[in-house]
Amino acid sequence: MNFIYNVVEIKQYVALLHFNNMAKKKTSPSFEEDLAELEQLVVRLERGEVSLEESLQAFERGVTLTRACQKALQEAEQKVQILIDKNGSQVLESFADE
Fold this sequence. Notes:
By secondary structure, the protein is mainly alpha-helical. The model has no long low-confidence stretch (mean pLDDT 78). A hairpin with a 2-residue loop joins strand 1 and strand 2 (89-90). The termini are far apart. A two-stranded antiparallel ribbon has the order 1-2. It has a domain at 29-78. The longest helix has 33 residues, at 52-84. It is built from 3 helices and 2 strands; from the N terminus they run H-H-H-E-E. It comes from Methyloglobulus morosus KoM1.
């Protein structure tokens, strides 16, 4: 009986590992991937070679991608703001080599 319990426990553990690996694979696309897809949508729409229904679907996807890109940019801007804040006061530093 002890052996059966251990086999069941191992199977559950393996299933959990598989589930975790699948969850990791479904991560959200990067800013660059979203931007590239958005650019491709714009090109397709500008060509005018898609139906009205396809245009509306592409537009809807474009809005979603735009929002995702805006969110990523806002998060990056916040990180930069945190990095340039020093001792409660903002210090701007040039990027030029001195």
